[in-house]
Amino acid sequence: MSDIFEKVKAIVIEQLGVEADEVRMEASFEDLNADSLDIVELVMALEEEFDIEIPDEDAEKIKTIGQAVDYIKQNK
Amino acid sequence: MKLPELRIGHLVAKVPIVQGGMAIRVSTAPLAAAVANQGGIGVIAITGMTVDEIRREIRLARQLSSGIIGVNCLFAAREFATLVKTAIEEGIDLVISGAGFSRDMFQWGKESGTPIVPIVSSARLAKIAKKMGAAAVVVEGKEAGGHLGTDESMKKIVPEVVAAVDLPVIAAGGIIDGRDIVDAFKLGAQGVQMATRFVASDESGAAPEFKEVYLKATHDDVVLIDSPVGLPGRGLKNPFWHKMENGEDIKPRSCNNCLKECTRRFCIVEALDRAQKGDMERGLVFSGEYVERIKDVLPVKTIFERLLQEVEACD
């Protein structure tokens, strides 16, 4: 597994208070019980961690952990 | 009590009353300008408008008033970015937005020097707004009309937000008279946003039939509906609502994908548009919780005079 995944996983665990084994590539934020505010905070934390900017339009398309990891890989 | 000025970024409103944005086309240039002329902040609701219409409305409002004019746009609108950027290009004084949370708009505000005022319903979102660079926040409770982000009272949320962030807090939801304004200020608000009261004004874009429904409304008429936007919305019972309640087929015949996400149970734009035009059978009438307290349709000037007299009479 990539380094990016591990970092995303750590942020998701911290932000959403979920267990490590729940954070899999295919898990959606909905599965992880994230509400709309959780997602805003999560996106902001990812921007900070990876020093990228995720516009609204792109953020709205990120529904799963895997999509977040792929987005960061492509835009970092 | 004497009301203080409301400062939002570089803007100073003499009267700390913001007129809430009301789509579709209930708050357009004439209403916004009338409010601005009284020293408040007039707001054009641009959701559901075309780019050309936004430009026309803003230019018309500028002809009618030299006061502060803002726009309100629903973040859930697919064309949100285009609509808000158009308003900024036209030199709008401030941008208010709710029903979701845009982070991009803060960047547009920074680039153009336009204060950005998100509508929030929790201290948590207010903190995020502060971090993003909001100039103020509108704190809307469940008493408000239209789309809602909470089931909690404004009176509970406002003090929480005031304690959480160092930003001007504009209280919204259920404010009808001067006493309500004073109460909101006592909770720490620095301004209020009122919408329902201004529907029943001479200058609002609502059809006479729409205003008539407001004057006749009782507490039992006020209901929550499931908006296709994915949020609850507060409005009034009418034949359209009964159809919804009875599970009748009210699905849209056509759709132009105007929302980023939509349940397509019915077309919210069409339903609100019908109401604005006076179709009280097939239109959806949004309204705040305390509409029953509104007894007359008045010029905006008279509404302001009364509110300020009522405020003055309070301790």
Notable traits:
heterodimer; A: about 80 residues; mainly alpha; Non-ribosomal Peptide Synthetase Peptidyl Carrier Protein, Chain A; B: about 325 residues; alpha/beta; TIM Barrel; 2 domains; eight-stranded parallel β-sheet; globular
Task: Tell me what you see in this structure.
The complex is a heterodimer of chains A (76) and B (315). The model of chain A has no long low-confidence stretch (mean pLDDT 92). Chain A is an all-alpha fold. Chain A contains four helices and no strands. The radius of gyration of chain A is 11 Å and the shape is globular. Chain A has one domain (2-75): Non-ribosomal Peptide Synthetase Peptidyl Carrier Protein, Chain A (Orthogonal Bundle), CATH 1.10.1200. The longest helix of chain A has 15 residues, at 36-50. Chain B has 315 residues and is α/β, with parallel strands linked by helices. Chain B has two domains: 6-205 and 294-313, Aldolase class I (TIM Barrel, Alpha-Beta Barrel), CATH 3.20.20.70; 208-291, no CATH class. In chain B, the strands form three sheets. Chain B has an eight-stranded parallel β-sheet with strand order 3-11-10-8-7-6-5-4. Chain B has a three-stranded antiparallel β-sheet with strand order 9-13-12, with no helix packed on it. Chain B has a two-stranded antiparallel ribbon with strand order 1-2. The longest helix of chain B is centred in the N-terminal third of the chain and has 14 residues, at 51-64. The radius of gyration of chain B is 18 Å and the shape is globular. The mean pLDDT of chain B is 97. Chains A and B meet through helix 2 and helix 3 of A and helix 5 of B.
